[in-house]
């Protein structure tokens, strides 16, 4: 394993340049497998961290049945998780620049292990909601730091490191619901303990295999993300993502209640969704953006998302139709996620980590209300109504993006 003690965390320009290299070097995927143990350790922990987002998905109906809760009550497990993740994104850069990236990673992992274990022992929905909020804190600390660390320790160039991170994200998002379904078919508590065990393995791997990564040369202030949002282009992208993620998390958290499948069935459906998400994100988005440009790519894909969500509202009574639409949405969401992230990195001169923190704050907090609201809308209107609301939210995001195109003159 190479010595990284004298390396520094890459700055915004270096990572932005790496994303361009990623689009230009199709052969770099072969070099993903030629990594030092430290990179694999962080990548494995990334997989488990991203698994936590969709792990609860297949067991939501079981939790509701076991604890005599309504869909909107159970959906608060996602609301608390996303809300805390978004808010804590504002301090992760400040903390990492003071205690160091490795310690930030380990702190996040310890918090996830603690709260996922306690979640498996919870006796009520209210307890679970609070414990998922704690889980969100750990996840924010970890995922906000992991990309920069992987870029620092991976071999083969920064482009390969970013591809490794994206692969970990896609794998985690796909395997999470499947594992949740498998363990959830035993008992709804089992997925919480399963994540704790996997995260403990990840923590030991990071602790042993990752040598200390130097702190950034310049400490980041608590006000940096808010100052970054003064840039009109970055603010526009953040607000667009806020409304877009409303649709994203409505699909992810509400669909298990209308599929009429068991835990394993729901897990398998969202496993396929995650695979499609990864395909769209890693393999389709770069060429799509290269041919159409960032602005047109975002606009067209968001139109596709709006139409698909509206169709899901029409066909909410047909589980087979919903399954097909969920798979299609995985592809569209994967493309949109990658193009939108690229846009955030290019739209302003703000340092990348600060721009990412500001953007993540808006997108996660924006998405946090959608699970709870979807449950309420379905209880009081119809089972298809949450999809219409989600489509309307994405439409607002698209209209906002279109109306403020002049604020994003740095995008092609």
From TrEMBL:
CDD domains, A to Z: MFS_YfmO_like
Gene Ontology CC terms: plasma membrane
Record keywords, A-Z: Membrane, Transmembrane, Transmembrane helix, Transport
Keyword Transport attributed: yes
Topology of the protein relative to the lipid bilayer: Multi-pass membrane protein
Occurrences of domain Major facilitator superfamily (MFS) profile (ranges): 38-409
Molecular function via GO: transmembrane transporter activity
Subcellular locations according to the entry: Cell membrane
Chain ranges passing through the membrane: 38-56, 76-96, 103-123, 135-155, 167-186, 192-213, 234-252, 264-285, 297-314, 320-344, 356-373, 385-403
Database matches in Pfam families: MFS_1 (PF07690)
Name of the molecule in the record: Predicted arabinose efflux permease, MFS family
């Amino acid at each position: 394993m190479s010595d990284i003690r004298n390396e520094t965390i890459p700055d915004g320009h270096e990572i932005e340049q790496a994303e361009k290299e990623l689009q230009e070097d199709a052969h770099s995927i072969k070099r993903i497998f030629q990594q030092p143990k430290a990179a694999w350790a962080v990548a494995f922990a990334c997989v488990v961290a991203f698994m936590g987002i969709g792990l609860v998905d297949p067991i939501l109906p079981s939790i509701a049945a076991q604890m005599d809760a309504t869909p909107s009550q159970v959906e608060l497990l996602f609301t608390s998780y996303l809300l805390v993740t978004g808010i804590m994104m504002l301090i992760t850069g400040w903390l990492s620049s003071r205690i160091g990236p490795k310690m930030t990673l380990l702190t996040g992992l310890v918090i996830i292990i603690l709260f996922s274990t306690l979640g498996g022992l919870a006796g009520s929905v209210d307890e679970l909601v609070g414990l998922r909020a704690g889980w969100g804190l750990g996840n924010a600390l970890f995922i906000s730091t992991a990309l920069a660390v992987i870029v620092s320790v991976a071999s083969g160039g920064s482009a390969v490191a970013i591809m490794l991170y994206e692969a970990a994200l896609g794998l985690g998002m796909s395997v999470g619901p499947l594992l949740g379904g498998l363990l959830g078919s035993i008992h709804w508590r089992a997925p919480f303990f399963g994540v704790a065990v996997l995260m403990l393995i990840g923590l030991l791997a990071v602790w042993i295999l990752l040598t200390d990564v130097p702190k950034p040369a310049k400490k980041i202030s608590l006000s940096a993300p808010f100052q970054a949002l003064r840039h009109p282009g970055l603010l526009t992208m953040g607000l667009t993502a806020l409304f877009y993620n409303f649709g994203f998390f409505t699909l992810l958290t509400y669909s298990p209640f209308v599929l009429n499948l068991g835990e394993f069935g729901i897990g398998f459906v969202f496993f396929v969704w995650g695979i499609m998400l990864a395909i769209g994100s890693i393999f389709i988005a770069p060429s799509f953006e290269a041919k159409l440009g960032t602005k047109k790519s975002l606009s067209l894909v968001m139109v596709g998302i709006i139409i698909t969500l509206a169709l899901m509202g029409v066909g909410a009574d047909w589980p087979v139709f919903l399954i097909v639409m969920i798979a299609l949405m995985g592809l569209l969401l994967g493309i949109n996620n990658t193009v939108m992230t690229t846009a955030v990195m290019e739209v302003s001169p703000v340092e990348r980590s600060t721009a990412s923190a500001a953007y993540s704050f808006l997108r996660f907090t924006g998405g946090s209300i959608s699970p709870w609201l979807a449950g309420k809308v379905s209880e009081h209107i119809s089972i298809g109504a949450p999809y219409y609301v989600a489509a309307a939210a994405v439409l607002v995001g698209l209209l906002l993006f279109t109306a403020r195109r002049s604020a994003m003159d740095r995008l092609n």
